Amino acid sequence: MKDYPNVTIFNHPLIKHKIAILRDKETSMKEFRELIEEITTLMTYESFKDVPTEEKTVTTPLETCVQQVIVDNSVVIVPILRAGLGMVNGVHVLFPSARVGHIGMYRNEETLEPCEYYCKLPEGIADKFVIVVDPMLATGGSACDAIDLLKKRGCTKIKVMAIIGAPEGVTKLAETHPDVDVYVSTLDRCLNENGYILPGLGDAGDRLFGTK
What we know:
Blueprint: E1 7-9, H1 13-23, H2 29-47, E2 53-59, E3 64-70, E4 75-81, H3 85-92, E5 99-100, E6 102-107, E7 114-120, E8 129-133, E9 136-137, H4 141-152, E10 158-165, H5 167-176, E11 181-187, E12 190-191, E13 197-198, H6 204-209
Helix pairs in contact: 1-2, 2-3
């Protein structure tokens, strides 16, 4: 896969260690869920490096000083249902007051294309810093459609964060939305004939919620 200026692939040993445990089919639902949140928090630190800030005067025990603080109510987390829900708490660890919107999509098992069934977004989202989260960036269809929905509602500051990405999905997203920054913790080998990432980690939603 070629390099794209709007794509960041993480190469951190701590994330690699957690991904190894995440992939293991013997990893319990509880541990899987915790790992998703932990990896998301590690990725959030880098993904939000350009979050809007403003100056605030702070009084220390010795004097006053001017500090940079995050602009209040400036961040919205948008998980792609249902697996994206597993990443929300990982972002909330660092941005506890961030609002949450939801976009529901399922994959047509014959065409592998995403089908929208739900969309509920916070009021005023067009002015916010929006991060779309989904553990798996496979074909890229769901992420692209979610961004299309957000752009139709006036959003201009959009990022996407995924735990595992396939070259096919990352390429599609990077080329379809070159104005959107994409953050992926691990780039895997390819998709199989059913659109699943290899080596991957199976169905993230099923492993998060114990539905299989």
